[in-house]
Specification:
mainly alpha; single chain
């Protein structure tokens, strides 16, 4: 996917920023597609800082638009379905500072789907302003880590990339093992 997106940016360089932000908006609205491939292509195409900034803008605006659409379309009939997620359930009833802290901290955790956080906040009680600020601020550290990992991986050869994949799988294994222990 990253390759196709990168090629699209190369074909239309004069529209590349608009294309990147537009696809980020679509991904945020869909809510289940990871955005790391856009961040990767943005960094390769625009450079580290510009690519990271464009990814941040796209993800922040995308989350805001998704929040508004989810709130208008799903708030009434989806509250019950999301109650089965214990950590997210707190977000449904949180307001103001508590909601801000929950959204911010959930955005920092890379394994929590962004769309789920946006969805829970939208059908919950948090205001748009609190959501937008907390969501955007929470994306900064996570996006910088993602951007740095992508940038580092592009500088590494095949062996380095394989090593990163193995480390990632190992971390995922320990994360899942730890989660099962708690249950």
């Amino acid at each position: 996917m990253q390759k196709h997106f990168f090629e699209l940016l190369q074909q239309y360089p004069q529209l590349s920023i608009i294309i990147s932000i537009g696809i980020s908006l679509l991904i945020a609205i869909i809510g289940v597609v990871p955005s790391f491939f856009i961040t990767s292509a943005n960094i390769l195409f625009f450079g580290f800082w510009n690519g990271t900034l464009i990814s941040f803008i796209g993800e922040s605006i995308g989350a805001a638009i998704a929040f508004i659409l989810y709130r208008k379309g799903f708030k009434k009939n989806m509250e019950e379905k999301i109650l089965k997620y214990e950590k997210i359930k707190k977000l449904l009833f949180a307001q103001n500072k508590e909601a801000f802290q929950l959204i911010f901290s959930l955005r920092l955790i890379p394994f929590v789907p962004s769309g789920l956080i946006t969805f829970a906040a939208a059908i919950g009680n948090v205001s748009f302003t609190y959501f937008f600020i907390a969501s955007s601020l929470g994306k900064v550290p996570a996006l910088l880590l993602e951007a740095y990992a992508v940038y580092g991986a592009t500088l590494l050869g095949g062996q380095g990339k394989l090593l990163l994949i193995l480390i990632g799988l190992l971390l995922l294994y320990f994360f899942i093992k730890q989660k099962k222990k708690k249950e």
